[in-house]
From TrEMBL:
The keyword Metal-binding does not apply. One of its GO terms (molecular function) is methyltransferase activity. One of its GO terms (biological process) is methylation. Keywords: Methyltransferase, Transferase. The lineage of its organism: Bacteria, Bacillati, Actinomycetota, Actinomycetes, Pseudonocardiales. This is Methyltransferase. Pfam families: Methyltransf_25. It comes from Pseudonocardia halophobica. SUPFAM superfamilies: S-adenosyl-L-methionine-dependent methyltransferases. It comes from the Bacteria. Residues 56-149 form the Methyltransferase domain. The keyword Transferase applies.
Amino acid sequence: MAVGPPGAAPNAEQRAQWGGDLGLLWAARAAQFEASAAGYDALLLEAAELAPGLQVLDVGCGTGSVTRKAAAAVAPDGTATGVDISGPMLQVAWDRSAGLGGVTFLEADAQVHDFAGRYDRVISRSGVMFFGDPPAAFANLARALRPGGRVAFVVWRSVAENAWMHQLMRALTGRMPPEPPPGPGAFGLADPERARALLEGAGLAEVGVEPCAAPVVLGRDVEEAFGLVRQILAGGLDGLGPADRERAIVALRAVLAEGAGPDGVALGSAAWLLTGRAL
Ligand SMILES: C[S@@+](CC[C@H](N)C(=O)[O-])C[C@H]1O[C@@H](n2cnc3c(N)ncnc32)[C@H](O)[C@@H]1O
């Protein structure tokens, strides 16, 4: 388990990435990233059984779109708190939430922060796959709940089931990408049995692991989508020679053009909806 050297702060690598270039990219393109997975929001919020007056914790909230939707669902007396390790993303979360009641943000590592058992719901849209010590992290999130409280998390299924990932990577490299090795990362909870075991191991009851699917929308049109993809894949593209880079750009644009429709540039995606209840 990637927990780092003894005495080191946990999740140092993730903190560096999300607090550094990756977080800055998400912060700069907040609207696009927020919209990209919005197809899962209604499902997530419904599974969380939100109701006015509840206290909600949104884990790995990023720039806060789900936190804001949760706050609206628990208004007028409830609150939604977004927790994240990325300073740049939280700055944007605060900016985009200006003037909204019941929304607050906290910069902390959700794996270890003491949430003092004060939440009725703990939710996340693709923010719980990055823990270096998942058993410790999910136990900590379970402790954040009051008795009877619920969790609802959306996490990606495998790369092979996520066209948005494997089509773009194949366009870049010319090959089907392998599944990433176990460890923190976007596909870190792709194995449903492992996800179930983590929630049950955290002491949650009535654990559910249900497949769900929605398009990932990368932009309103091909140009906007390519701008995002170009930045996400900058490392891969810049490492290619001129001819291969040109080939990859043509292939990437072709994937995006194929996904273009009235609702923007949409590629297929697949996730697990994880649910559970605190005893
Ligand atoms: C893929 S982004 C998802 C952001 C947001 N939930 C959304 O759907 O737009 C993952 C988020 O998890 C955050 N994160 C990663 N590890 C974390 C940790 N240990 N504690 C809190 N947040 C974490 C990252 O900073 C990042 O904002």
